[in-house]
Specification:
It is found in: Cell membrane. The chain has 17 helices and no strands. The protein has about 325 residues and is mainly α.
């Protein structure tokens, strides 16, 4: 019951903040131009700052665990490959990029640290999971959203060049790279910088959620209901069922296992919608999946934690 209440305390405010954006649009406080500008702002400033701060404050040398890093990277890679294969069954295929991204990309950074701190009193191995998975999440998101952009046509040199440019110039990837370099060089993180970056970072999730809510059209968001349900199932249940037994067999327990549970089965991050919208996709499918995974993740995450706790693993 404690796990359920904790997960509900994490996910319900997210869900309600998203609905606030929808409500504000319905009463005329938000219009399409404002929502689009807010989406762009979140993509360029707060989200990169959030990831920069999360990673820059990690002591990579102290936290480094090659086995954990390799496992998280490998499982994330396999999840992406499975998502790409599953997306081939979509007809029409205009939402392939959004389907792939939303089915593998978790709210790992924010939710992972929050849950592990609640269980163990510190961030534990969550930073290692973030280092191993979040950069890969974002690089592959740029790739799939570029390659499977609606109306793209065949993949040629122009598409590959644009994809590579998208990776190199993507604000979120730049934020991760800057944070990693900062941590590797062990640069000091002054209080003034920490507070300023923290204030900006805190706006990322609420503004992103309200922008998504303001863009939400329920008819469009669930017009591909079978695909939305399949994507939600893979995000919350499928990858967890496939890879959690492997993690246990590899000997991961305690905070390491909880980090892997969050990586595999937490809700699709709001960044899915923000990036899709900013890279030429409609974003309706992404918003629908974020809505569904956020709604149901409190129960599925609690189930996985309950199972592992019952087995004495966490």
């Amino acid at each position: 019951m404690d796990n359920l209440i904790f997960c509900l305390n994490v996910t319900v405010p997210i869900f309600l903040t998203l609905l606030l954006g929808y409500f504000f649009r319905r009463i005329g406080l938000f219009d399409e131009t404002f929502v689009n500008r807010m989406n762009k702002f979140v993509f360029v400033i707060p989200l990169p700052v959030l990831l920069f701060q999360d990673i820059a404050k990690i002591d990579i040398y102290e936290a480094w665990d090659p086995k954990m890093i390799l496992f998280c990277f490998a499982i994330t890679s396999l999840s992406i490959m499975i998502s790409v294969l599953l997306s081939r069954f979509l007809h029409p295929s205009d939402i392939r990029g959004e389907f792939i991204q939303a089915s593998y990309r978790s709210s790992a950074a924010i939710l992972g640290i929050a849950i592990i701190q609640n269980l163990y009193g510190n961030a534990g191995m969550a930073p290692l999971m973030i280092i191993a998975s979040v950069p890969l999440y974002n690089v592959m998101a740029v790739v799939v959203l570029s390659v499977f952009k609606p109306g793209q046509g065949k993949i040629d040199g122009t598409v590959l060049k644009r994809t590579l440019k998208g990776i190199v110039t993507n604000p979120i990837i730049l934020g991760i790279a800057a944070g990693t370099l900062w941590s590797l060089l062990r640069l000091p993180f002054p209080k003034i910088l920490d507070s300023t970056a923290g204030n900006l970072a805190k706006t990322a999730t609420p503004l992103g959620l309200m922008a998504m809510g303001g863009s939400l059209h329920f008819g469009k968001a669930f017009s591909r209901l079978k695909a939305s349900v399949a994507c939600t199932f893979m995000k919350l249940v499928g990858y967890e069922a496939l890879f959690l037994p492997l993690a246990i067999r590899c000997g991961f327990t305690k905070d390491k296992l909880v980090s892997i549970i969050i990586m595999l089965g937490s809700a699709s991050t709001v960044t899915c919608f923000v990036m899709a919208k900013n890279m030429g996709h409609e974003g309706s499918f992404s918003s629908g999946v974020v809505l569904l995974t956020t709604l149901f993740s409190a129960f599925t995450l609690t189930l996985w934690l309950f199972i592992c706790k019952g087995l004495g693993l966490i």
